[in-house]
Write a structure and sequence with these properties.
The chain is built from seven helices and eleven strands. The protein is of the alpha/beta class and 223 residues long. The chain has one domain (2-221): 3-Layer(aba) Sandwich (Rossmann fold).
């Protein structure tokens, strides 16, 4: 089973929009929840989860901080070496937990309540082109599609927390920034972070959806 937990993310609902645009075949395999913290906290999902997809940031948009039940289940899942797909700001999904903050390879650092005193990340708004990295020996190289997006949040200046592959990037006037990366958990589980996609005009982009589906397929085939 694939579990997909999302929040409303400032009424943009990026997780819900991505899920809505996935193929029917994928939607039938995914248990999707938005703003359902009781389900996350109960932890029953951990027992049969083959893949966990997150598109949320703890404690934002009036949502509560996940408690002990959620942390226990999440830690058990990660320690089992099973894969994660982190969408948009989900590298900060559980930012209050110290062990989580070092996990994602690139971490979105919030502008408030930052526990480690790291300078905040930024998200300028601009149209952008997300380009796959082609000169790479990563198995996804050459399979991902470039994405042309209208004006949207572009996540930049994330904190590096672990070694990672850069799979996609974007070029802005101020520099070149990773937009899709892969790292590994301490137990060897694959973690792919895919940063683009805030507004519905972007989360429904067919090429963006294609790349998300490709990541899901690859994480399940080679966890």
């Amino acid at each position: 089973m694939i579990y997909f937990f999302a929040d409303g993310h400032y009424d943009a609902h990026p997780g819900r929009e991505i899920f809505r645009h996935l193929s029917e075949a994928w939607r039938k395999k995914i248990d999707f929840s938005e703003n359902d913290w009781a389900k996350l906290e109960a932890g029953l999902w951990e027992k049969d989860a083959e893949l966990l997809i997150l598109n949320l940031i703890a404690g934002t948009c009036g949502q509560p901080q996940p408690g002990e039940g959620a942390e226990k289940a999440m830690k058990k899942y990660v320690q089992s070496g099973r894969p994660l797909l982190l969408l948009h700001g989900a590298s900060a999904a559980f930012w209050p937990w110290a062990w989580w903050r070092v996990l994602p390879g690139l971490r979105w650092v919030r502008p408030v309540d930052e526990p480690d005193g790291v300078e905040a990340s930024r998200h300028p708004h601009a149209p952008c082109r997300i380009e796959p990295v082609l000169r790479s020996r990563h198995p996804l190289a050459g399979k991902l599609r470039p994405i042309e997006l209208p004006e949207d949040e572009i996540y930049i200046d994330l904190e590096e927390t672990a070694p990672y592959w850069t799979l996609m990037k974007t070029h802005l006037a101020e520099g070149t920034y990773p937009q899709m990366i892969e790292t590994k958990s301490p137990r060897g589980g694959r973690i792919i972070s895919f940063l683009p996609g805030h507004r519905p005009e972007c989360t429904g982009n067919p090429d963006l959806v294609y790349d998300v589906e490709l990541a899901i397929e690859d994480l399940l085939a080679h966890p």
